[in-house]
């Protein structure tokens, strides 16, 4: 097995194990066994659990943002509808089997303050999500796209947390967040 294949197997195994169960609950040997990779190869690629967790989150970030971007591009043309499509996508994500909230917030809650590599990936994910919202907000007729992006980011992040912990149906959380986003757009519009 070459390094590329071993790396893909390890990242897939980390995703299958860390997201549903948590980082502390899963040891490196369990990830290695799930991936079918030797211990030597695991530590050749990832010298510590922190390195593996950061890589797993980095890969998840790329997939998560790509899925969001694809949904928005396929389902909306109008700048306002593109911003609201973010919340539609969140509703689809919240309804997926095995949804456990934001993997980045979960990781930070478990180990972020004690793991600088993980903290850097978590912060980068949130910055890139905000930048995506800002790109969408710049196409919307508002005098302050920065403020609009910040407000929508807070609304989306709150919806992710609420969907993870509240007992009510998760798509309802996204629908309410979408209504709040629509009100923000109306208040921010100059046209």
Automatic annotation (TrEMBL):
Residue ranges occupied by any HTH tetR-type domain in the UniProt entry: 4-64
Keywords: DNA-binding, Transcription, Transcription regulation
SUPFAM superfamilies in alphabetical order: Homeodomain-like, Tetracyclin repressor-like, C-terminal domain
DNA-binding region: 27-46
One Pfam assignment: TetR_N
Protein name from the UniProt record: TetR/AcrR family transcriptional regulator
Lineage of origin: Bacteria, Bacillati, Actinomycetota, Actinomycetes, Pseudonocardiales
